[in-house]
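Quick log. Single chain, no ligands specified.
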Amino acid sequence: MRFVVFILMLFLAFINGSTVVLAQGVGHPHFGSEFYPTDNYSITKSKWDGIDEEDLTIVNNDLDAQSPIFLLKEKDTLLNVFDLYKEDAPYTNINLWLNHRPGIEGIKNVFLVESRFTGCGELLDSYYILETGDGRLLRLPSLETQNDGNELYYWQYRFPNEKFGQRNRIVKGYLDLTQAEELISFQKEKVYLWDGKKLIPDP
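-> predicted structure:
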């Protein structure tokens, strides 16, 4: 899983004579983001939360076991955001952010769940969930950011109420950052329209 990936990243950095730098982690709001912490919603912890790496192997030798991570509104379960592998649990931090009224017609909220795996480098999975005005929850394709100590391209969706956003559109792109998390530029990859059910590439 991710632990194996980072062993490979460390090996590649070693043979290239470079040093893998542990990123500090990009929080919100940053660089014109409108995602903020929320008290009304939360995410569940994994069933292995609080168990250290050594004890984790004693509890169950099945490192491929998974624990679902759910989005909650107060005590109500809304949906399963993703499944966390047991072997990744000791190295993973999960955060929830909310963009209220993002400026897309028919969309009330956008949830952002970030799963940050830190080892010899950093992997960040970003899960965006749209909440419609009638309460439906719809996923955008997840985004992955890798930081091996060299280029840091922080992949995001940007919404109309955010910096780098466009009116009535959802912009997919990445923040080009230094290892000190200083912004170099925002690079736009694709622009989408939202038809109420899915993303449509803007011609």
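The chain has one domain: 2-153+160-165.
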